[in-house]
Amino acid sequence: MNNNLPEHTQKLVLACIDGSILTEAVCDYAVWITQRIDAPLKLLHTINHHHETAVTTDLSGNIGLGSQESLLEEISDLEQQQSKLKLQKGKLLLQAAKDRVIKAGISNPICSKRHGGLIESLIELEDNIRVLVLGVRGQVHDNQNNKIGAKLEVVIRSLHRPILIVNSSFQEPQRIMIAYDGSEAADKAIEMVAKSPLYKGLTCHLVCVNNNVANAENLLQQASKKLKTANELTLISASLTGKADLELCAYQEKHAIDLTIMGAFSHTRLREMLLGSFTVKMLLHTKKPLLLLR
User: Fold this and answer.
1) Where does the pLDDT of residue 58 fall: very low under 50, low under 70, confident under 90, or very high at 90 and above?
2) For 175-293, which CATH superfamily applies?
3) Rounded CA gap, 224 and 236, in Å?
């Protein structure tokens, strides 16, 4: 894998590859986006070489100096072996991902293996990202549908780029839903859908959950004006009342929505502490991918 390729001046679709059961779906959704917006595709795998050895080293002090030195040498050897295994695993993961996206029609994907944490790597790459694609959970939480990735919330809060969170096998989106509440992030979603070739020809459900029906209708009317002439969209508007995350998830399932677009963490920090994050609830409960905007 070549880590020394020149940076593209054109912003990239960046797909994070970690070997979890969602890795193939991440590749597939990244391909779909890449082909529709005609952007370069980059596959990223990060390798964290941090080892938790402090406890073992402390315990070794109880069995004498000579034994401690021997144990530290053994630990060092094991760490080197682990690092080599991580490097080999990363190489194989990237090669498999590259083969998959090439087979899907991407002629020249970029493969990148970076040493260090995922969050730090993404922050460094942010200026070159057009859309980030990653799984809702990694290997640690594979098959745990009541969990989201340990680093996912930090990634979402740290980056100001569109982030597609993949939570199921790939299905080419035909019907999208915009969760609209009149916020700045929701207005950004409207503008993005109106302008981007990603959504051309799709059916767009514009949904507002608001117990003030009159207010909801006003919001929908304003947003609809921007969408009606955009990208050959078929537009459907819906006003709902009730608890936002439950209503949106129910609507998504009832109308076979393939992709939901919404703002991320629009509530105040205090409100999130008291009520829990709406974004996290959607990540936990929705059965189809979420495209989040900050």
Assistant:
1) very low
2) HUPs (3.40.50.620)
3) 9
